Automatic annotation (TrEMBL):
The chain crosses the membrane at residues 12-31. Keywords: Membrane, Transmembrane, Transmembrane helix. It comes from Hymenobacter psychrotolerans DSM 18569. It holds the Pfam family PadR. This is Transcriptional regulator, PadR family.
Length: 159
């Protein structure tokens, strides 16, 4: 066998800093699962929920003044899976951005409670988020109802 034929039967694999010559027979052995990290749907679901959490909080507060514990309960019922350690820093960030305000009210069952309301800036911010949400819904609807490559229309999925 000629030297050029032997070289033609080898594959070159570039790694971050080195170049290895791997015989064709061992090529499949080289690419084991250590390089591929399987994606977990749960991670993507969590990221999607985090992405809309501010929007959901502002929607809840837009209905009227609300206590953080009540927000947490409503978000949990809506399956947003939020914990206090996530909610309170987010409320503080929204307050510091001028989107929320709060008032202290006496409680029959303990210390005074902090009730949140939207500021004028918060109302405008929420309006912009609602427009964006409608655009995202439309975009997803368009993508999900497009005919398949074979030409037959897919059954539209209602969001």
């Amino acid at each position: 066998m000629l030297k050029t034929d032997k070289i033609a039967q080898q594959k070159f694999i570039l790694t971050s800093t080195l170049c290895y010559i791997v015989p064709f027979a061992t090529f499949d052995l080289f690419f084991t699962d250590y390089r591929l990290k399987p994606m977990k749907v749960e991670n993507t679901q969590v990221q999607m929920r985090k992405g809309i959490l501010e929007f959901c909080i502002l929607e809840i507060i837009a209905r009227g003044e609300v206590y953080a514990s009540d927000m947490l309960e409503e978000l949990t019922q809506a399956r947003m899976i939020v914990v206090e350690g996530t909610l309170y820093p987010l409320l503080t960030r929204l307050k510091n951005a001028g989107l929320l305000d709060y008032t202290w009210k006496e409680s029959m069952s303990g210390p005074p409670r902090k009730y949140y309301t939207l500021t004028e800036a918060g109302t405008e911010f929420l309006h912009q988020l609602r427009l964006t949400w409608e655009e995202v819904e439309d975009s997803i609807r368009i993508i999900r109802t497009k005919p398949s490559a074979s030409g037959s229309p897919e059954t539209p999925v209602v969001l």
